[in-house]
Amino acid sequence: ILIQEYQDLTGQIIKKVIDLTTTLEKELKNLIELFGKKTEKQKKEVFENQGDVDDLLKEFGL
After folding, report:
1. Distance (Å, whole) CA 1 – CA 46
2. Which domain holds residue 21?
3. What is the pLDDT of residue 53?
4. I need a labelling partner for 18 at 20 to 30 A (CA). Which of 2, 40, 60, 61 fits?
C-alpha cells in the first residue's frame, strides 16, 4: 500500500508539472506573438539615414 501511495503522489506531482509546463508554453507563445515578430509595417519604420536619427534625438533634447 505504501508503494501505491508513493506512486499516486508522484503521479499527481508529474501531472502538475506537465500542466504548469503547458501553461508556460502557451503564455510564452502569446508573448512571442505580441513582441517577438516584426510586421511589415514595423519593419518600414526603420530610419532611412543618420539625419533622421539625429532629428529624432533632437526632438528628445539629446
Report:
1. 67
2. 2-59
3. 79
4. 2
DSSP 3-state helix, strand, coil percentages of the chain (rounded to 5)?
80, 0, 20
Reduced to 3 states (helix: H, G, I; strand: E, B; else coil), residue 56 is helix
Which residue, chain included where needed, has cell 501511495?
5
The three three-digit cell numbers of residue 41, written as one number: 509595417
Number of domains making up the chain:
1
Ordered DSSP codes for 20-44: HHHHHHHHHHHHIIIIIS--HHHHH
Task: Name the pTM for this structure.
Answer: 0.50
The alpha carbon of 54 is separated from its chain's Cα centroid by a whole number of angstroms, namely 32
